[in-house]
């Protein structure tokens, strides 16, 4: 068979395709553990950043050491209670340490219908929260938040101060909004507007609003210039996660516990 024949060309192309496919597959499998480790570290970094605990120059070892001091809790969003191991096992969660809310949202036994989150009909029933304590004293809590923007579902963390009413910070670790417009949710200057803002009232009413244009007072955050839909999305899902269908019941339980201990 001539090497420059049509059949020869097809055979060479086929062999190259098979070889490239094998190489790509092997690389994907080999790199998967590193990708998962990077995702884990990135989430830890964002939790610490939202809580104001991340320092410039913190390396992986420093981030991991700081994160180990934060208490991880799995919360039943319907009841607001921290789920016991027995409850989690009954729900089919046999390994709480590796529980994934992302996977739970795709599992009809572990998700729930919601009405107050525009563009999203189901969330996980059990959410992972991060409690910051020192010698038994509450210093804050970091809540996972997500919701629809213009082009993407945005995922991040919102940190509350010890009073559970004031913002410590906000971060986004995954979003696909327009760079320079909605993508400014990840701009340090915009995120710096959040600390000190009043998120909730003492009776649990959600106060915070992300407004179009410039916000005024302690209950408003400036909107993103030229990104009205993204701004509205952030406003809607932040308020949702602080409300009754989100972490509102959990925050009330935590407040009650702190008042009792106090």
Automatic annotation (TrEMBL):
Cofactor names: FMN
Residue numbers bearing the FMN phosphoryl threonine modification: 228
Localization of this protein: Cell membrane
UniProt record similarity statement: Belongs to the NqrC family.
Ranges annotated as spanning the membrane: 6-31
Taxonomy of the source species: Bacteria, Pseudomonadati, Planctomycetota, Planctomycetia, Pirellulales
EC number: 7.2.1.1
Region described as Disordered: 86-106
Designated name of the protein: Na(+)-translocating NADH-quinone reductase subunit C
Gene designation: nqrC
Catalytic reaction list: a ubiquinone + n Na(+)(in) + NADH + H(+) = a ubiquinol + n Na(+)(out) + NAD(+)
């Amino acid at each position: 068979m001539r090497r420059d024949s049509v059949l020869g060309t097809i055979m060479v192309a086929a062999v190259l395709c098979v070889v490239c496919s094998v190489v790509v597959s092997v690389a994907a499998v080999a790199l998967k553990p590193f990708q998962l480790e990077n995702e884990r570290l990135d989430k830890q970094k964002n939790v610490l950043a939202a809580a104001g605990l991340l320092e410039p120059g913190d390396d992986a070892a420093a981030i991991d050491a700081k994160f180990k001091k934060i208490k991880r809790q799995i919360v039943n969003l319907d009841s607001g209670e921290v789920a016991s191991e027995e409850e989690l096992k009954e729900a089919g969660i046999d390994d709480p340490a590796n529980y994934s809310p992302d996977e739970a949202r795709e599992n009809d036994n572990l998700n729930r219908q919601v009405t107050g989150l525009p563009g999203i009909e189901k969330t996980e029933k059990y959410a992972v929260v991060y409690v910051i304590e020192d010698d038994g004293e509450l210093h804050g809590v970091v809540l996972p938040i997500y919701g629809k923007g213009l082009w993407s579902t945005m995922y991040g963390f919102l940190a509350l101060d010890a009073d559970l009413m004031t913002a410590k910070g906000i971060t986004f670790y995954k979003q696909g909004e327009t760079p320079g417009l909605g993508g400014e949710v990840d701009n340090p200057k915009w995120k710096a507007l959040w600390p000190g803002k009043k998120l909730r009232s003492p009776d649990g009413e959600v106060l915070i609003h992300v407004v179009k244009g410039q916000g005024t007072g302690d209950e408003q955050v400036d909107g993103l210039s030229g990104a009205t839909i993204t701004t509205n999305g952030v406003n809607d899902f932040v308020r949702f996660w602080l409300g009754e269908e989100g972490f509102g019941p959990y925050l009330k339980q935590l407040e009650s516990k702190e008042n009792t201990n106090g």
